[in-house]
Specification:
This protein has 155 residues and is mainly α. It has six helices and three strands.
């Protein structure tokens, strides 16, 4: 009898995709998309319906915040993969993610400040060469990759 009771408690702690959508404000289609991209995981009940543990609401909040900060889904997935597979993340897990994302944001901010500071002088400069562009190829960093066209993002 105790096994049935424990299974009932566990089932009540799982939420349907509709419940997750309602509580998180994220459309069902986005939840399915996140799952297809490996950002979240569900389990299937006997009727083959998706069920999510309650802690997925925290992960969804983190995904949304990370997206608003400009992180790609691949970057978010990579970091979420470091969280415990079963069970809620610990405070230390969140501190680690926050620290990593803070470093990424500082790098992005520095790039944006450089863009802002050089933008006025670059608009209409007419350099027309990748070698001379201080925004796209500062100090001709692309030359290190050898001859030929290439797409790059200077660091």
């Amino acid at each position: 009898m105790a096994g049935k009771k424990e299974a009932g408690v566990a089932a009540r702690q799982m939420l349907s995709v509709g419940q997750i959508a309602e509580r998180s404000g994220i459309p069902v289609s986005a939840l399915h998309f996140y799952e297809s991209k490996g950002l979240i995981c569900s389990e299937r009940n006997a009727g083959n319906q998706r069920r999510y543990p309650r802690y997925i609401l925290r992960q969804l909040a983190i995904i949304r915040v990370a997206q608003s900060l400009g992180l790609s889904l691949a970057e978010i997935r990579e970091q979420l993969a470091t969280l415990p597979e079963k069970g809620p993340p610990t405070a230390e897990d969140w501190r680690r993610l926050s620290s990593q994302w803070s470093e990424d944001l500082e790098t992005r901010i520095a790039k944006m400040v450089a863009l802002r500071d050089k933008l006025t002088e670059c608009i209409g400069c007419g350099c027309l060469t990748v070698e001379d562009c201080p925004l796209r190829n500062p100090d001709d960093q692309a030359a290190a990759g050898g001859p030929g066209a290439r797409a790059f993002d200077p660091q």
